[in-house]
Amino acid sequence: MREWLVAAVAEAAGVDPGTVDPDRPIAELGLGSRQLVTLGAGLAELTGRTPDASAVFDHPTVTALAAAALHGPGAGPDPRPDVPAPRPHSGPAGEPPGPVGDDIAIVSMACRFPGGADDPEALWQLLAEGRDAVTDVPPGRWNTDGLHDPDPEAAGTAYSLRGGYLTGIDRFDAPFFGISPREAEAMDPQQRLLLQTAWETVERAGIVPGTLDGTATGVYVGLYDSGYLAAAGLDRLDGHVGTGSASSVASGRIAYSLGLQGPAVTVDTACSSSLVALHLAARALADGTCDLALAGGATLLVTPRGHVEFSRLRGLSPSGRCSPFSADADGVVWAEGCGLVLLKRLADARRDGDRVLAVIKGSAVNQDGRSQGLSAPSGPAQERVLRAALDAAGLRPGDLDHVETHGTGTRLGDPIEGRALARVFGPDRPAGRPLAIGSLKSNLGHTQAAAGIAGVIKTVLALRHETLPASLHAGTPTEHVDWADGGLRVVAAAEPWPRDPQRVRRAGVSAFGISGTNAHVILEEAPDPAGPGQEPA
């Protein structure tokens, strides 16, 4: 039966039978729905059963389909005897979860950020060196003829094209993920980047990705439309562009590639997208919806429309330098990036001997509502989300040492955020211990949908390296924040943040969307190792 199926699939796909992997979905060979139905009909004729159009879709691999044909539709999915059984950290979908708790462990991280920060270690090196990764637009990225114009009123142009750019966004190993070159070309590069980073995140946790197939693992991704192929003519619509450009598919593609059966959710709340995704993932773990979760987000600047649009609003930094909370702040600098973390209930992680990088103590999400304007930041709403996250974590404002701010380097947004922080953290701040604040955007620029998760990864690295990195270009602090009485200070130079046997180190991470959706997450240093799989932070 298996041999017959391999031959039939190969004939339908026009490939050599030796290239058919019996444990990969048949559709990955390029077979469409009609061909799959025809294959199912041929199989029914061979076995003498009534044709069942759903059989090929219910059992997507040759191995699974052969088992169903021989033993009946109840034979179940592909047993894949050659793949090790999943580790106990993530049970099959639908299996009752282990003990549910509110503390969520971060057990792995992976990222791609500007300045060659292609993994967390390289990102920390960039931070430790105090580097600014903002550059001119890479050659060949866009057609820049006539695009740059110093006049902010010049329609269709941008007065600055500087940003935090990734390199090699066109590189993608499509066959590795069972994707045809034709489909890969139609995929938004953000989907490709997320897929690669998800695989790496799982591997960095010491997990063989194939062992997660069939488990209750969730995917929560922050993403918004990049405009890829938006101007493509109707003749380019070949059946792959729809899924390739749909943001909703980004999370589903990761789940499909790894065989994950927990929730797969794509979040678009603009600049807060990835932090909202992290909040949703943590809640899903806490309530038992899933046992393991990938969370994060990505942004790629595949068109210059963000630069052009913000030039009309005079929101871009003419200097091409992001200077959060500085008197020299002159606007936002756009950037690219991708970051994902792997989450697990802390009790389960300690039981299984996982390496815990940091702990999510609490988080909150809210909305500005009817504020000064649809896209204008709201100080009162930011206060509310900060207090809600503290309440969720069961903490007081004085329990935090640091906040990785939204801090975009704008003359309006930074003072509003600074005053909100001062109102929440200032009144009860211990004498001589002002809240340290900083912004990764001073190094990378504003990575938009990925900004929240970028701040989380930076903060986890700071906890583990026991150092608060410098927030660049701080200069003279803005006069629109009461630094003296507000209990705040900008981390203008790197400083030690050592473990203290008398108190636990904690920090918050903020992200505020231009949509009006705000998020704040509170992180805590990893607990002492509880088993042989743990490492000291």
From TrEMBL:
Residues 70-102 are annotated as: Disordered. The lineage of its organism: Bacteria, Bacillati, Actinomycetota, Actinomycetes, Kitasatosporales. It comes from the Bacteria. Keywords: Acyltransferase, Multifunctional enzyme, Phosphopantetheine, Phosphoprotein, Transferase. It comes from Streptomyces sp. SID14436. Residues 76-99 have a biased composition (Pro residues). InterPro entries: ACP-like_sf, Ketoacyl_synth_AS, Ketoacyl_synth_C, Ketoacyl_synth_N, PKS_assoc, PKS_Beta-ketoAc_synthase_dom, PKS_NRPS_Biosynth_Enz, PKS_PP-bd. Residues 101-525 form the Ketosynthase family 3 (KS3) domain. GO terms for biological process: fatty acid biosynthetic process; macrolide biosynthetic process. The keyword Mitochondrion does not apply. This is Type I polyketide synthase. Residues 1-73 form the Carrier domain. One of its GO terms (molecular function) is fatty acid synthase activity.
